[in-house]
Amino acid sequence: MKEFVSAQSIDEALDTLSRFGDDCLIMAGGTDIMIQQRTGDIDPRRYLHIERIESLKGILVDEKILIGSTTSHHSIVSSKNLQRLCPGLVSASATVGGWQTQEAGTLGGNICNASPAADTIPSLLAANALVHLKSSSAERTVRLDEFIVGRRMTSRLEGELLVAIEVEALPANASEVYIKVGPRSAMEVALVGLAVRISISPLGIVENVAIATCSVGPKPFRAIAAETAILGSQLEDEAVMNAVSELTQEASPMDDFRASARYRKQVLGSALVNALNICQLQHKLREQS
Amino acid sequence: MKLSLTVNGRQESLDVEVGTSLLHVLREQLGLTGTKEGCAEGECGACTVLRDGKPIDSCIMAAHACEQSEITTIEVIGDSPDHPSELQNCLVESGGIQCGFCTPGFVMVLTALLKVNAAPTDAEIKHALAGNICRCTGYAQIIEAVIATAKTHQ
Ligand SMILES: Cc1cc2nc3c(=O)[nH]c(=O)nc-3n(C[C@H](O)[C@H](O)[C@H](O)COP(=O)(O)OP(=O)(O)OC[C@H]3O[C@@H](n4cnc5c(N)ncnc54)[C@H](O)[C@@H]3O)c2cc1C
Ligand code: FES
Ligand code: FES
């Protein structure tokens, strides 16, 4: 007979995980799991439900920002602190399905499901996110780009629970955006997702930049070569075009019934140009005020 | 596996296979057929119920994940079938109901919206309804009904 354990504390969850390991599937909001189960992709014998554990929920803003793994997309979107300190993540969570999906779906679930189209991952990568993992015997912190290792694959070890996600706050002189391109933004898998976080000096020089994408390869990634192309520039056309070319070269999007790979690459390039324009505009408005 | 659920204020004790959706339990085991199954994959909102006051798609919610929640379904919206809620009245009057299949889901989401925002704007209503599909009305009459409901409360 199948089993369903609803843990009330982290210790209880870790204890169950240490006993059953991979023979037990962690369930947060279940929005991915229930569909995978229906289509027959998975057939777990035992669920460990973690949504009731209070200490896995919530947003802590101190020197660093910690987001509990079962914090819902709706809570992220509604958080005044995150709207100010991590607006890219807020925009990304706001595109994860409709209201119902955002109430049930969690940030930790979006990360651990590790879909190539996971909307929150680009903004998290741009904010240098770290994931905090715990098992009954150990604790570790891993960079998000090392945690997501491939299409629907993470480096989570047997018995580990994702406890929290740590992100860097947006610096005072920085701007960020998340651009999701799809037939319509809510309720659709992104054709292209692109996050940019950028700091521009009063003289208009790019002092820091992070560019990350989803839906254009087997896993979301930071586009380091594109970042290098505009770092130190004043976002002149030439620098931007170089970044576009680096970004589209690094992308390896799918060719499927929804869009061709060539189209996705073109859209990705335009998304970067748009994102940089929006950030530059935000920067100018800030300088004027 | 045993399941105890609180639905519409009533405590229910059931035997349910693990992995079964809340929607299945409501319709097939509790006979609450007001909640509809459209897509069965979280896309259409026809199966929306309130879980601790928050709208969720019951087709992709595990029943056992609701043991400590209060579930509210369309059956208890309004005082009785003869005395629907103000929102339900407005939906009828505006022509926001045609075949009616999507209506329970819309009523649940909009009831939740009006609870947190008594006078939502057009944009706020559309945003709240991103997860609900209606094949008949074209949405304009539904939005009209929400605005009319908000006015009766002023
Ligand atoms: C209608 C609909 C629309 C959607 N639209 C989008 C969209 O636009 N963009 C998008 O990115 N996603 C979308 N999704 C997918 C999904 O809603 C999100 O990925 C959501 O964030 C998953 O969270 P969850 O809590 O429901 O995950 P679950 O289904 O509970 O879990 C997902 C996976 O993560 C694992 N897991 C969960 N939490 C932990 C943890 N703390 N530690 C270790 N492992 C864990 C689970 O074992 C499972 O493998 C959509 C889903 C639906 C149904
Ligand atoms: S039946 Fe649940 S969302 Fe369509
Ligand atoms: S009234 Fe028919 S689907 Fe909405």
Describe the structure.
The complex is a heterodimer of chains A (289) and B (154). By secondary structure, chain A is α+β, with helices and mostly antiparallel strands. In chain A, 38% of the residues lie in helices and 24% in strands. In chain A, the strands form 4 sheets. Chain A has a 5-stranded antiparallel sheet. Chain A has a 4-stranded antiparallel sheet with strand order 11-12-13-14, sandwiched between helices. In chain A, strand 4 and strand 5 (65-68) form a beta hairpin. In chain A, helix 5 (87-93) packs antiparallel against helix 8 and helix 10 (224-230) packs antiparallel against helix 11. Chain A is globular. Chain B is an alpha+beta fold and 154 residues long. Chain B has 2 domains: 2-76, Ubiquitin-like (UB roll); 86-152, Orthogonal Bundle (DNA polymerase, domain 1). Chain B has a 5-stranded mixed sheet with strand order 2-1-5-3-4, covered by helices on one side. In chain B, a hairpin with a 2-residue loop joins strand 1 (2-7) and strand 2 (10-15). In chain B, helix 2 (86-94) crosses helix 5 (140-152). The relative contact order of chain B is 0.16. The A-B interface holds A 1-4, 6, 27, 30-31, 33-35, 37-38, 44, 47, 49, 51-52, 74, 97-101, 103-104, 186-187 and B 1, 17-19, 21, 40-43, 45, 48, 51, 54-57, 59-62, 64-65, 67-68, 109, 112, 127-132. Residues 37-40, 42-47, 57, 59 of chain B line the site of one FE2/S2 (inorganic) cluster.
